[in-house]
Prior knowledge:
This protein has one helix at about 20-30, and strands spanning about 1-5, 10, 35-40, 45, 50, 60, 70, 75, 80-85, 90, 100-105, 110, 120-125, 130. The protein is mainly beta.
Amino acid sequence: MAYTIDFNLPKLPSGAVDWIAAYNDLCDKIEAGRTISTLAGVNITQYQCFYINSSGKAVVASADTDVVGIWQSFLNTVDTLGLGQLDGTMTNKKWAWIPGTFLYSGINGDLSATPSKGRRVAYVLTATKILLLTL
């Protein structure tokens, strides 16, 4: 199946279409939240806060920079294409956050529960699931 360039939504092919699969795929993507497909401007790993630089590439955010979202792809090196998540929910079974708290962008783009580290970027729903805030 083909996908839109920026937001990774399914594009239906010409000819026969598996409507149930297409509908389910679209619902799953909408449920998870919007993503943006872009080139990495630096080495960037999954769950790092990122922003788009003046070259239109994703770079790691710090405690002092704006944040567009949280990187979704596992690992991207410079000039490779990846996905950053802009809103919705994100789950990582290895997290151990305290539900009901906010998360902030840390000094190296990491998520932190310490408010003094950076901008508020997410809200903890469960120990392993967060809600990205509209940034």
